[in-house]
From TrEMBL:
Designated name of the protein: NAD(P)H-quinone dehydrogenase
InterPro entries found in the cross-reference section: FAD/NAD-bd_sf, FAD/NAD-binding_dom, FAD/NAD-linked_Rdtase_dimer_sf, Pyr_nuc-diS_OxRdtase, Pyr_nucl-diS_OxRdtase_dimer
Renumbered residue ranges of the record's region Disordered: 1-23
Species: Brachybacterium kimchii
UniProt xrefs under SUPFAM superfamilies: FAD/NAD(P)-binding domain, FAD/NAD-linked reductases, dimerisation (C-terminal) domain
Amino acid sequence: MADPSTALPPDPDRTGADGGSAPRVVIIGGGPGGYEAALTAARTGARVTLVEERGIGGAAVLTDVVPSKSLVATADVLDLVGASARLGIRDAEDAGEPVAGSLTVDLARVNERLRGLARAQSEDIAASLAAAGVVVRPGRGRLEDAEHVAVLAEGGEAVEMLPADVVLLAVGARPRELPEGRPDGERILSWTQLYDLDELPSHLIVVGSGVTGAEFASAYRALGSEVTLVSSRDQVLPGGDEDAAAVLEEAFTRRGVTLCSRSRAASARRERVADGDGGDGSAEGVVVTLEDGREIRGSHVLMALGAVPATAGLGLEEAGVRLRPSGHIDTDRVSRTSVRGVYAAGDCTGVHPLASVAAMQGRIAMHHALGEAVGPLIHQQVSSAVFTSPEIAMVGLGARELVDGADGEVHVLPLATNPRAKMQGLTDGFVKLVVRPGSGTVMGGVVVAPRASELIHPITLAVAQRMTAEELASAFTVYPSLTGSIAEAARRPAGE
Ligand SMILES: Cc1cc2nc3c(=O)[nH]c(=O)nc-3n(C[C@H](O)[C@H](O)[C@H](O)COP(=O)(O)OP(=O)(O)OC[C@H]3O[C@@H](n4cnc5c(N)ncnc54)[C@H](O)[C@@H]3O)c2cc1C
Ligand SMILES: NC(=O)c1ccc[n+]([C@@H]2O[C@H](COP(=O)([O-])OP(=O)(O)OC[C@H]3O[C@@H](n4cnc5c(N)ncnc54)[C@H](O)[C@@H]3O)[C@@H](O)[C@H]2O)c1
């Protein structure tokens, strides 16, 4: 039976032909939430228009996921070199131990590559949208009411009014700023401005130790910058798995990252400092002042203070779309807002700010709106990774939720016991599984290891398919392999 709450009833005759009964879908925002929804709706036969003001692919492709993970790929190579001495590798010139510091990066070249990859990905997505018949309107979208979206030109004047049967808001978020330390794109930087640097910062201060701060601190240290990480909490990656954060902190300290915990930045400013290099006697630097008055000096500062939803000035309140106090759009698990026919997906909803989740929310929204069969977003099945060295990946219920009162058993296996890890000279990391007592169902897991982002998938499948630990342990793993530790952890009695 049709779900009476969908924006449109299912239409078996929907053909996707231009005229007739094909519903009109208008999407504001061309990031993963918006473009995945556009492709889904077009394939379902709707007439789709996507309004995007900056570039197809959104922040995910242009400034966030694609460039940052491409930067991490360069950093990974330097990390491998730094750890290769224990595998018997020596410098060809002097037979000394190879150190990452003996190599250097051409940051201008690295950044050129990252920007090129982002551009190419954006063009690929634009081509897919065009092939699917999605019409892209460059400009700023504003919701006029539940059935109309205005396209605004740069000056703010409406240049077009798009009628809609269904609207999807997928406008994303932008970097949070410190009022007394606004990014200037040169020394005080948001993460979107890092890719214009031509020279490696000699000393990068990273303010904020969430996922963004931890990833850039890890990457820039590997590239050769001195790095100071300013964390407002006791541990890095607050809110995540504490054991994983402890491994990362240890790795940071060993690699020479200076950690300032329980330190909140109040302001950041530029200053001229003596450089003693025989030039004019001074060079540019930055000073970060903490709330307790301490000052930290470096060459550059990266502000990684989180993000704010880009929902202001979109006409949402006027159209009756309910916002939460944080400014995020209030949605349910099938991406509906408080206004019938208006859906929202991605970072603007504040539901797991991940590209994968944005895309899933967008697809769910379109299936629901167009009367297709759809299941809601299942939070416990979301997997994610922190691309530091080592990587941290997680899915479902973690140990923190257990501490907070959920019922479960924890199985942990240090990576150091794994034969492949020994062969590769790996010592940091572990596999952790959380299993429901009695039934033995896998409820979640954490992997801390190189390429943990790839290793988490068997645990994600186990969670999604409600497999027991015994079932997870019974499948063959390659010998020797790091995934062997996942099966081994599933085999182990809890707490051992
Ligand atoms: C440094 C960093 C690294 C990350 N790495 C990962 C990762 O490895 N994996 C992962 O899953 N997630 C990662 N994320 C999170 C990921 O980037 C976001 O979750 C994702 O971008 C959300 O997609 P979205 O579609 O909601 O928004 P966005 O990608 O932000 O796209 C929104 C689009 O809407 C447009 N827009 C906004 N307002 C309007 C308007 N009024 N009219 C027209 N257009 C408008 C914007 O120009 C933008 O293009 C990372 C985030 C950061 C900051
Ligand atoms: N690999 C990935 O998938 C990836 C990478 C980056 C970001 N993300 C997504 O983006 C989301 C946001 O991550 P984020 O790290 O950008 O933001 P966040 O909100 O998780 O972390 C920001 C941190 O900055 C701290 N902070 C705020 N003001 C401060 C101040 N004045 N001084 C010192 N610290 C201060 C906060 O306490 C917080 O710990 C993540 O939850 C994640 O979903 C994902």
